[in-house]
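A note from the maintainers: we've had questions about how concatenated examples are separated. There is no special marker in the raw files; a new sequence line simply starts the next protein. For clarity in this README we add a label.
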Amino acid sequence: MLFATYNAAGVLVSSALTNFNKATDILKEHHRKEYHIAASVKAENFIKIMQKPHKAISSIIDTQRSTLIEKNRKLLHSIISCIVFCGRQNIALRGHVDSTDGENNPGNFLALLKFRADAGDEILAKPFQPGYKLSEVYISNHTK
């Protein structure tokens, strides 16, 4: 009766079994009832959850989200430190042509980011690998 639905009415749910002469037939019929099957599934799921609890989807999403936030903060910290360095040294951020193509001068800011990436800044190394879009990592000429 613990996992029974409100529309379940019958012997063993709303009343006790009193006709013991037909008990096997009544139990077989009860076992085939939809409300009995639904209650059995709910009970099995309850036991599984209680024996081995899983993380809720909201906590998994929050974990992934907090990991992404932390990664973006580290990336922004590296980028902002380059901007502060350029400002303190009175170095213009933009070059003649701001692009990452090997043909043109990438500009002071992108050159400094590339220099830091080559010097071992692992956070800044990833955006300069093939496949990354600069707009996704806050260093395109549109987001500056």
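[label: protein 2]
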Amino acid sequence: MVEKSGSAFASGFLGCLGSLAALAFVGFLGIVLFAWCVSSIDLDSDGSILDDLGGLADRRITVEVGGSSGLSFSGTCLVTSGAGSAATHDIAGRVPMNRTFEGNLISCSVQKQQESGTLRATLRVGDRVIESSSTTQPYGLVLVAGFP
């Protein structure tokens, strides 16, 4: 058994207290920083977050389905609005086809209804491409999603 002198024990104990105090101080700074960040977000009168997070206003989003002319396809788009509502829209037809939705978040899955050909889905806001994906696989599926 090893005996420690009183000064060695006190030194170790004070070192441990110093470490705990440093951790408490860092935790306190983290809480202050978090509170400052939360308080800097503007809220509407109803408590919803305004455009601080990159723009929550609804935008006109165009889904362009292209590829091999006449290719048949079917799919679904989920569109979320700034008000928090979400709606599912079925899309089907032959290439080329454009559909326009109002929202701030969109996710679409589009599948070829035949083996041959190319299917491409593109999301646009105005002239800006948000995302585009294509497939040549038999009965292939494309997924596109974006936050315009």
